[in-house]
Design goal:
elongated; 2 domains; six-stranded mixed beta sheet; Chitinase A, domain 3; alpha+beta; 3 helices
Length: 160
């Protein structure tokens, strides 16, 4: 797994999310301030609903920008070869079916899925159940994640 390429893909995806959020915020703002959406009576709430949407979209845009800033800061203080899983680590796991999967432990924006050299990398945070269990583990350690009645075991096979 090529970690520099993973970082590149991550920054491309975060910037794409910012662009999408910015377009949505601008559209919502235009709708909220459009003269055609002025309330004609107390039951006409289109303008009010559009204002709430515009506010929510502007908050989403601010969160996307903060996510990008978090990862730029994390990239600047990245360690060369960590011995234990920590924030900023790309972790290779092998499950009980001998399937290899990759997780990147980030400060925010959990759930983003990246395609790096044909491999899927899922961004998780340290607050996610798997992220919390992985923190401070080392290569060859095993973690078990319980989801409802299901139990999934992973072995840490590489910390990149």
């Amino acid at each position: 797994m090529n970690k520099p390429q993973m970082w590149q893909q991550l920054f491309i995806e975060l910037k794409r999310l910012i662009n999408v959020a910015e377009l949505a915020a601008n559209r919502a703002h235009e709708t909220a301030t459009n003269d055609g959406n002025v309330a004609e009576n107390k039951y006409d709430t289109l303008g009010l609903e559009a204002a709430y949407l515009a506010h929510g979209q502007s908050q989403r845009l601010a969160q996307c920008r903060a996510d990008l800033d978090d990862f730029e800061q994390l990239k600047r203080r990245e360690e060369a070869m960590p011995l234990r899983v920590s924030l900023g680590c790309l972790v290779q796991l092998c499950n009980q079916n001998d399937e290899v999967c990759y997780f990147f432990i980030g400060p925010s924006a959990g759930g983003i899925k990246l395609d790096v050299q044909g491999e899927s990398v899922l961004l998780i945070t340290a607050q996610a159940p798997l992220g919390a269990k992985l923190l401070t583990t080392e290569v060859d350690d095993e973690v078990t994640l319980n989801i409802g009645d299901n139990s999934i075991s992973y072995e840490v096979t590489a910390i990149i």
